[in-house]
Design brief:
Blueprint lengths: L1 E6 L12 H10 L3 E5 L5 E5 L3 H15 L6 E5 H14 L2 E5 L8 E3 L2 E7 L2 E6 L7 H9 L3 E5 H8 L3
Antiparallel strand pairs: 1-3, 1-4, 2-3, 5-8, 5-9, 6-7, 7-8
Helix pairs in contact: 1-2, 3-5
Amino acid sequence: MSSVAFFRNLNQGQRGHPSTQLLLEAFAVSGARGARGVRGNGTVVFDADDPEGCLAGILAHLHARCDWQDVAFVRDLAWVADRADELVVHGDELSVFDGPPPAVPLAGRGCTVVAAGPGYAITANDLPRTSQATPTLERALGVPVTSRGASTIALVAARA
C-alpha cells in the first residue's frame, strides 16, 4: 500500500534533526519499500504492507539515533491526493493529526480553518506564503498537528 508519512517539526539535516540518509535508513530497516522524500520537511512517500506498524518502527529508529523526538502521522497516498483536490478549491495548507476534526469555520490568528474531517483540516491563510494552521489547530484541539502547504501536497499527489 502506498502511504505518506508526515513528520512533525522535522527539518532534514538541521542540527538535532535526522539527515535524509538517516530518515531513509529508518524506513528501510522498518520494512518500508521505495521510500522517497518530498522536499526536506519530513514528508515521505513509501510502500508498506502495514504502514502504521512500519511508522512505529521508523519513529523508534529515529528516536534512538538522533535528538529529534516528535511524532509523525501516516495517511494513504490516495487519501492525500483527494485532499490535494480539496486544497485547490478551499485553502493553502493541509494539516494532519490524530482525533476528531474541529468545527468549521474556525478562525485563527492569520487564518481560517475552512474544511475538516477525521484527522485532518484545511486552512486558508490571510496572507500568501504564511503558515498559521498548526498553531491554530493545536490550540483548538490540544493535540500535536503538522501541516504542509498546497505545493507540497500537490507534489505528493503527483506520485499517486
